[in-house]
Amino acid sequence: MPEAKLDPARGPRTQQQRREETRRALLDAAVESLIEVGFARTTTLEVQRRADVSRGALLHHFPSKAELLVAAVDHLAEMRAKEMKAFASQLPPDPSATERVEPGERAEQAERAERAERTWRPGSGGDAAVGGPPLGSDARTDAVLGLLWQCFSGTFFKVSMELRTAARTDPELRRVLTVAERSLRDKILAQSRTLFGRAVAEHPGLERALDLTLQLMIGAAMTSVLHGETSRADVLIDDWKALFPLVMANVAQGAAAGAAGAAGAGDASSAGTDRKKLKGKR
């Protein structure tokens, strides 16, 4: 891998800058090797050769192969997160943002919302719709889900798939990869909240719906890689975009119903205890 050229106008590099450049060169070399020759042939010696660094430099940054390769996934994830952040300014406007409307239009919007809340689930009479009616699919939500899907169609996913497959029989890799993936999931959730419209970002069903989305996309992407085509997966993701608001609503309703049931059981238990105490006094 060619060494970065020093720009005379910038002056000499600091020790910290040199360390960061070495680390980045190692991560880039690890990604390049995983893509070109796969996990089994991506040894630390191969990465060292591609990065053109000393053995000591490699071991200083990454004491083990597992830590090096998982760090490479984190490196790609950070790059992808920056790309998604850059795309944020190009997303469709947030439909739930406050807009200036005339009094007559506001009354009409309120009437539509009330009617939707009463009728969004047949037979519910509106009472079962804990958390309100499902949000309708909107262009911004669809665009954010589309950005997430792009994460599963490029270098990032191919590298992740290599490591996931290898982790099945490599306990050390499985340990560090599991920790890294949990952290990555939390970062995806946090960033998604900043990209979705306000109504979606604040919805109580978002977290579970996003977990379902990620699992669906992982499976669809792996099938696409195996079959060598993406058209069917793209159709499935489009179908999921339409279902996403309904999933959020159902998750929120289920959670609220569970909480209400638990509270009712607690009240009944408390009442039973009071009756026993009263009987004992008699």
Q: Can you summarize this structure?
A:
By secondary structure, this protein is mainly α.
Indicate the topology.
Elements: H1 15-41, H2 44-51, H3 55-61, H4 65-87, H5 103-119, H6 139-150, H7 155-167, H8 171-195, H9 198-201, H10 206-227, H11 231-281
Keywords:
282 residues, mainly alpha, 11 helices, globular, disordered N terminus
Gap between N and C termini, in Å? Answer: 88 Å
H-E order: HHHHHHHHHHH
Task: Report the β-strand fraction as a percent range.
Answer: under 5%
Mean pLDDT: 80
Instruction: Give me the number of helical elements.
Output: 11
Unreliable residue stretches: 1-6, 112-133
What is the makeup of the main sheet? Answer: none
Helix content: over 70%
How many β strands by DSSP?
A: 0
Structural class: mainly alpha
- Overall morphology: globular
Radius of gyration: 26 Å
What does this protein structure show overall?
With 282 residues, the chain is mainly α. The protein has a domain of 135 residues. The chain is built from eleven helices and no strands. Helix 1 crosses helix 4 and helix 1 packs across helix 7. The chain is globular, with a radius of gyration of 26 Å. It starts with 14 loop residues before the first helix and ends with a helix. The N terminus is likely disordered.
